[in-house]
Amino acid sequence: MRKKILSVILSAGLLTTAAVGFTGCDNSATTTGAEESTGGTSAEKVTLTNVSYDPTRELYAAYNELFAKHWKEEKGQDVEVTQSHGGSGKQALEVANGLEADVVTLALEYDVKAVQDAGLIEDGWVDEFDKDSSPYTSTIVFLVRKGNPKNIKDWDDLVKDDVGIITPNPKTSGGARWNYLAAWAYADKLYNGDETKVKDFIKKLYENVLVLDSGARGATTTFVENGQGDVLIAWENEAFLSIQDYPDDYEIVTPSISILSQPSVAVVDSVVDKRGTREVATEYLSYLYSDEAQRIAGDNYYRPSNEEILKEYKDVFDLDINLVTIDDFGGWDEAQEKHFADGGIFDQIYEEK
Fold first, then answer.
1. Which domains are delineated in the chain?
2. Rounded alpha-carbon distances, angstroms, from residue 54 to 214, 221, 255, 283, 307
């Protein structure tokens, strides 16, 4: 299924937002990121649109079925969820510009804040759900070809002259921003906070990038399907899914330093109030914290936010990995302004090929 989805996305173009809908009756509906959701609530059926980021396709394919069953049992009502996926920053922009989403499940807090800044989400959303409205987490790892022919062990191996890197564009992809910050954290420790040397390190790393896709799934397609590059800097869950699909072709390398990646979820207040879907939208996000949903997250290689359930996956995840957090960068507002805003450090060090 995942290979089929990847090929469809590739043929449609990397900048096209792909979407798949799932219903409680196993019927499917499709939409593109440029289309607005339709419908709302009725006695028999309710519809929701979840605008998400690239690597959550499989997670929400499974979760939407679970939630449809849960909502039917609780309310006696069918629920249909339409999914929209793409680079997280691009998805946030789509919603801010009019794509009607009942909920957003994006790659990082800053992208949800961009929707809030457009006047669509009320203040306080980050405290509406547990764990800063982050029901699952991930981190950043390396996916390399079987046997690791370039002997890539850590971030410093990525700046060698003969290494070709695949990573998405931090200007459009939330995962790409986590990638960049994890590399920065390594270099910051390596050079004891000497920012000139850290910037030189990051510049060299991006000089080795062969393709800068708009989103994480597009980058995975470039590396796995198209065979480009020696290493993919990837969400942990993306790397595991690639291993699952191609167990004889790839392996995962965990760097000495990475980052706690916290995808964020929020109800889009202006949309749910207009469509009459606040109750179901709120429950849709709240139920992500249920034991069943947490295990779906784990089964799809996201780290459950429930610590007890996370321990059930200790044989899957490296739970002792050294993780910095966004707080080490002063929070997302400061990190965005310094590194990713127009004229920021990324713009200063990256030269398009």
1. 2-135+263-311 (3.40.190.10), 140-260+322-349 (3.40.190.10)
2. 10, 11, 23, 23, 25
d(C-alpha 184, C-alpha 181), whole Å: 5
pLDDT digits (tens, 9 = 90+) for 152-172: 999 999 999 999 999 999 999
Tell me the two tokens of residue 111. Answer: 């992208």
Q: What is the 8-class DSSP label of residue 236?
A: H
pLDDT score recorded for residue 43: 76
Q: How remote is the C-alpha of 139 from its chain's centroid?
A: 10
The model's pLDDT over 258-290, given as tens digits with 9 standing for 90+, comes to 999 999 999 999 999 999 999 999 999 999 999
Closest CA to 48 of 269, 270, 278, 288: 278
Rounded to a whole number, what is the distance in angstroms from the first to the last CA of the chain? 34
Q: 215: exposed, middle or buried (C-beta count within 10 Å: 0-12, 13-18, 19+)? A: buried
Backbone angles phi, psi at 188, to 5 degrees: -60, -40
Tokens 């200007």 sit at which residue? 171
Any residues with CB less than 8 A from the CB of 15 and at least 6 apart, and which?
90, 214
Alpha carbon distance 78, 69 (integer Å): 8
pLDDT tens-digit series, residues 53-63: 999 999 999 99
Report pLDDT digits (tens) over 101-140.
Answer: 999 999 999 999 999 999 999 999 999 999 999 999 999 9
> Alpha-carbon distance 167 to 176, whole Å?
7
Q: Which two tokens stand for residue 260?
A: 């706690």
